[in-house]
Amino acid sequence: MITNTPWGAWEVLLESPECKVKRITVEPGQRLSYQYHHHRREHWVIVSGVAMVTLDGNEQMYTTGEVVSIGFKIPHRVANQGPDRLVFIEVQQGTYFGEDDIVRLQDDYGRA
Length: 112
Description:
It is a single chain. The protein is an all-beta fold. The chain has a single domain (2-106), classed as Jelly Rolls, CATH 2.60.120. The chain has no helices and eleven strands. It has strands spanning 2-4, 8-15, 19-26, 34-36, 40-48, 51-55, 58-62, 67-70, 76-79, 86-94, 103-106. A hairpin with a 3-residue loop joins strand 1 (2-4) and strand 2. The radius of gyration is 13 Å and the shape is globular.
């Protein structure tokens, strides 16, 4: 099932006790919340587009085939500053994968 958001969409590809895998699409000019998680770490594989990733206040560009690794409790965000959709695969590892483990520090859509 695809879940639409103000910034794009995501869908769960796999959910197991060991991990959760999502396909995430970010529309041009949009970005996710600046957030962290208590119970999971994440690995992002850029499938298409260009990602501006903020990790603990530091920004870096990532392109197709590159991987971003995010530890527990590390503030992070991804933004699509390019003209095309950004697509990446997110692999979550940890002890809990619920959406209520999102601690939003800043959000463009009033959810912080």
